[in-house]
UniProtKB/TrEMBL annotation:
This is Ribulose bisphosphate carboxylase small subunit. PANTHER family: RIBULOSE BISPHOSPHATE CARBOXYLASE SMALL CHAIN 1, CHLOROPLASTIC, RIBULOSE BISPHOSPHATE CARBOXYLASE SMALL SUBUNIT. RuBisCO catalyzes two reactions: the carboxylation of D-ribulose 1,5-bisphosphate, the primary event in carbon dioxide fixation, as well as the oxidative fragmentation of the pentose substrate. Both reactions occur simultaneously and in competition at the same active site. Although the small subunit is not catalytic it is essential for maximal activity. Heterohexadecamer of 8 large and 8 small subunits. Coiled coil: none annotated.
Length: 140
């Protein structure tokens, strides 16, 4: 299953030059950038592990790319994303979020169906990845 997650989920995978262009755009808008990773990308899992601290006061994307590459090297079988935070008064929200790495094998999700009273059907999602313990979900 190909996980569609983030601002550019409908585009092909970004190259490092594409990532640098998006990070530059975020920095030009004065949005602090952070790098996060996870091995449980459930759509409702909004809280991923943060790689280091948010990167404030940068002018060029080189520092962010160095952090992205360090995170990729440390967690080669995890999802890695970049977040840009708009901290202006009245906004204070995520302005930009996109994946920069995904594992080679994505187990995906299963649609579950439960029958309730009056033959009412309820549906939910269950991640295959959660059948294994954290840290062992995407191969060994």
């Amino acid at each position: 299953m190909y996980l569609r997650h983030g601002t550019f989920s409908y585009l092909p995978e970004f190259t490092d030059a594409d990532i640098a262009a998006q990070v530059r755009y975020a920095l030009l808008n004065s949005w602090p950038v952070s790098v996060e990773y996870t091995d449980d990308p459930h759509p409702r899992n909004a809280y991923w592990q943060m790689w280091g601290l948010p990167l404030f006061d940068l002018d060029e994307p080189d520092g962010v790319l160095a952090e992205i590459n360090a995170c990729r090297a440390t967690f080669p079988r995890h999802y890695v994303r970049v977040l840009a935070y708009d901290a202006r008064f009245g906004r204070q929200t995520t302005a930009l979020s996109f994946l920069v790495q995904r594992p080679a094998v994505e187990p995906g999700f299963e649609l579950t169906r439960t029958e309730g009273p009056d033959r009412r059907q309820t549906y939910g999602l269950r991640s295959y990845a959660t059948e294994k313990p954290q840290g062992a979900r995407y191969g060994g």
